[in-house]
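stage 2 :: seqdesign
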C-alpha cells in the first residue's frame, strides 16, 4: 500500500514532476532510507526505469538535479538507484503542530472482527491471549483510522461438545467434587466424560442424543446448557474486564441456531448439497474433503454456523472487511467456508479474511486444554488470569520501591497495568505467524524491548510535563522552528511515520508493525533525553521560555503518540512508574 506519511504524497508528486510528468506519483515508492544520515526519505527509481527506458542511477541523477529546494524539500541527492531527500524541518514541525497523527482513511468503512471466541465450559487458557489481544489490536488499529468496528466474540456454545457436558452432568453432577459448579468443575466433568468414552463408546451416542435434544429445544437440556453458559460467560467477563477488552456482539454460535435452516435451504436451492456417509456436505473446488453441513443425525455443525454468521454479519453491518482472528489450525475450515460463500453467489466472500496466528508452546508442546493435562504438567492448562496475577505480583514491589510517594491505590493500578503490559506486549511484538515459546522470564520481562519499557518512556514524558507544572497544551502555540537539534529532529521525523505504521499494521493485520514502531520511537526519545543529561542546553526544561515551550510541545506529542499506540495494543500508559 502507498505510504500515508503526510510528506509521501507531496514528495511523490515532486519527483514525478521532476521526471517530466511521464510517470504517475502513485508509481513511485517513498520510503525511509536505511540510515537517517542518508536523508529523511528515499525514492527508488526501479519501478519507473522500464517505462522511461533509462537505468535507475541515471534517473536518480536527473531527479536530484531537477528537485529544487522549496517549502517541503530541503535537498535531494542521488545515491545509486535512489534519490535521497531531506525535507524542510519547518514543514514537518508545522504539520506535527496540528496533532492529527493518524489520517482518517477508513472513514465510512465497516469492519467486522471475530476474535477471542473461546469455547464455553473451559477456562480462558494462556494461549487465548493471542486471539484476544491480536484481535483487540486489529480492532483498535482500524478504529484509529476511522473505521466503524464491530467486535464479535463468537463463543463456542453450540455443538456435540455441549451434549457431552449435559450427559456428564447427568451422570456425575451430583458428586461433591463438582460443587460449586464453576468453570473448573465443568471442565473436569467434560474431561472425565471424554476419558469414559474411550472405555465405553456408547457414551458418544448418549452425548449426541443430548445435543439433539438441545437443538430440538427440550426444556431440561436448555436449562442446563444455559446454566453452563452463564457460568462460563461470567468467568470470561472477569478476564476481559481486567484487560479492558470489550465486544459489540457476544451471541456466540448458539445465536445462529434459528438462522441455519435458511442457509441449508440456500445451499439446496443452488444444488450444492450432497450426501456423504450419511452426512450432508458441500463439495468445493480444489478441496480434498467436503464441507460438513449436517451430521447423520441431522444436527448442525461448526461450519454451518460460520456460514450463517457470515451472512448475518453482512446483512446486519454491511461490512467492507470481515476478519477472523483464529489460530492457523483452522485455515482449511475458513478457506472452505469462504469458498462455500462464493459458491452461494455472495461476491462479498472476498471481503472475508482468516487472520491466522502461530501457537503458544509450553516446553515445545502445544497447550492442551481439552486433554485434562496442561502443558506445565498440571491437570489443567495454564490460565490466562494466573499469568497476569503472577506478572502483577512481580511488578508490584518494584513499583512500590521506585515510587515511595505513590498512594496505595495508584501503586496497585500501576502495577496492574505494567504487569499486564509485559505479558500482552510479549504476545503482540513477534510476527503473527510465529509460534511463541512461553517462558516466564520473557513473558513478564520489564527490560529490553518490552511493554514496560514503552510505558516507562511514556511515564518519563508525563514526568517532564509535571515538572514544568503541567502547562496547558503548547502544541499549537509553540514555535516549533526552534527545534533544530538532530536529536529533536529524529523524534519529530519518527512521529511523522506514526499514522503510516498504524495504516500498514491494519492493512496487513500485523500489529507487530506498530509494536516495533513504538520501540523505535522510544529509542529516539531516550537518545534525545540522554544527550540532555550531558548537555544542559539540550534539556527540555531550559530557562529560555520559547525553547522550553517548543520542547515541551514535542514531549507532549510523544506522550500522546505512545499513549495512543500502547492503547491500540491493549496497554495503558501510566502517569508515573
Ligand atoms: N471457538 C472456536 C475455537 O475455540 C473459535 C471460533 C472462531 N470464530 C469462528 N467464527 N469460527 O476454536
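stage 2 :: out
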Amino acid at each position: 500500500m502507498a505510504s500515508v506519511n503526510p510528506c509521501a504524497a507531496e514528495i511523490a508528486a515532486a519527483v514525478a514532476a521532476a521526471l517530466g510528468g511521464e510517470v504517475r506519483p502513485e508509481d513511485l515508492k517513498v520510503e525511509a532510507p536505511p540510515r537517517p544520515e542518508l536523508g529523511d526519505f528515499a525514492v527508488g527509481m526501479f519501478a519507473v526505469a522500464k517505462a522511461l527506458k533509462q537505468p535507475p542511477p541515471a534517473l536518480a541523477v536527473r531527479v536530484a538535479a531537477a528537485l529544487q529546494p522549496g517549502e517541503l524539500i530541503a535537498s535531494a541527492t542521488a545515491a545509486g538507484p535512489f534519490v535521497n531527500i531531506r525535507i524542510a524541518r519547518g514543514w514537518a514541525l508545522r504539520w506535527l503542530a496540528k496533532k492529527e497523527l493518524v489520517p482518517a482513511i477508513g472513514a465510512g468503512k465497516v469492519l467486522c472482527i471475530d476474535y477471542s471466541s473461546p469455547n464455553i465450559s473451559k477456562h480462558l487458557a494462556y494461549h487465548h491471549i493471542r486471539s484476544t489481544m491480536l484481535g483487540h489490536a486489529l480492532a483498535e488499529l482500524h478504529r484509529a483510522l476511522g473505521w466503524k468496528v464491530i467486535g464479535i466474540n463468537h463463543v463456542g456454545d453450540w455443538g456435540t461438545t455441549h451434549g457431552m457436558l449435559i450427559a456428564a452432568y447427568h451422570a456425575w453432577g451430583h458428586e461433591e467434587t463438582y460443587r460449586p459448579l464453576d468453570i473448573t468443575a465443568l471442565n473436569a466433568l467434560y474431561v472425565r466424560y471424554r476419558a469414559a468414552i474411550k472405555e465405553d463408546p456408547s457414551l458418544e451416542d448418549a452425548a449426541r442424543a443430548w445435543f439433539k435434544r438441545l437443538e430440538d429445544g427440550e426444556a431440561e437440556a436448555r436449562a442446563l446448557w444455559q446454566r453452563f453458559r452463564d457460568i462460563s460467560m461470567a468467568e470470561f467477563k472477569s478476564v476481559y474486564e481486567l484487560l479492558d477488552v470489550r465486544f459489540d456482539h457476544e451471541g456466540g454460535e448458539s445465536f445462529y441456531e434459528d438462522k441455519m435452516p435458511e442457509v441449508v435451504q440456500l445451499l439446496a436451492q443452488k444444488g450444492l448439497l450432497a450426501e456423504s456417509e450419511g452426512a450432508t456436505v458441500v463439495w468445493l473446488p480444489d478441496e480434498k474433503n467436503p464441507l460438513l453441513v449436517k451430521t447423520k443425525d441431522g444436527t448442525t455443525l461448526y461450519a454451518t454456523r460460520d456460514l450463517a454468521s457470515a451472512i448475518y454479519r453482512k446483512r446486519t453491518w454491511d461490512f467492507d472487511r470481515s476478519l477472523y482472528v483464529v489460530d492457523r489450525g483452522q485455515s482449511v475450515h475458513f478457506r472452505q467456508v469462504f469458498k462455500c460463500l462464493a459458491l452461494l453467489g455472495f461476491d462479498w466472500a472476498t471481503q472475508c479474511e482468516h487472520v491466522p496466528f502461530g501457537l503458544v508452546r509450553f516446553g515445545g508442546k502445544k497447550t492442551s486444554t481439552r486433554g485434562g493435562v496442561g502443558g506445565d504438567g498440571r491437570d489443567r492448562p495454564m490460565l490466562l488470569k494466573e499469568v497476569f496475577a503472577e506478572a502483577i505480583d512481580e511488578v508490584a514491589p518494584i513499583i512500590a520501591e521506585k515510587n515511595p510517594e505513590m498512594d496505595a491505590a495508584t501503586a496497585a493500578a500501576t502495577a496492574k497495568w505494567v504487569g499486564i503490559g509485559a505479558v500482552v506486549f510479549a504476545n503482540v511484538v513477534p510476527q503473527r505467524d510465529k509460534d511463541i515459546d512461553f517462558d516466564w522470564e520473557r513473558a513478564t520481562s520489564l527490560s529490553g524491548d518490552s511493554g514496560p519499557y514503552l510505558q516507562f518512556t511514556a511515564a518519563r514524558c508525563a514526568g517532564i510535563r509535571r515538572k514544568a507544572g503541567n502547562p496547558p497544551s503548547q502544541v499549537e502555540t509553540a514555535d516549533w522552528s526552534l527545534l533544530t537539534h538532530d536529536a529533536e529532529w529524529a523524534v519529530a521525523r519518527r512521529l511523522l511515520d506514526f499514522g503510516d505504521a498504524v495504516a500498514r499494521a491494519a492493512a496487513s493485520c500485523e500489529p507487530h508493525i506498530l509494536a516495533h514502531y513504538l520501540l523505535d520511537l522510544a529509542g529516539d526519545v531516550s537518545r534525545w533525553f540522554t544527550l540532555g543529561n550531558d548537555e544542559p542546553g539540550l534539556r527540555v526544561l531550559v530557562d529560555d521560555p520559547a525553547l522550553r515551550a517548543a520542547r515541551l510541545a514535542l514531549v507532549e506529542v510523544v506522550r500522546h503518540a505512545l499513549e495512543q499506540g500502547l492503547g491500540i495494543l491493549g496497554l495503558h500508559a501510566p502517569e508515573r512508574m
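stage 3 :: structure notes
- The pocket of arginine is lined by residues 114, 117-119, 154, 156, 306, 324, 326 (CB under 6 Å).
- The chain has three domains: 6-87, 110-366, 384-569.
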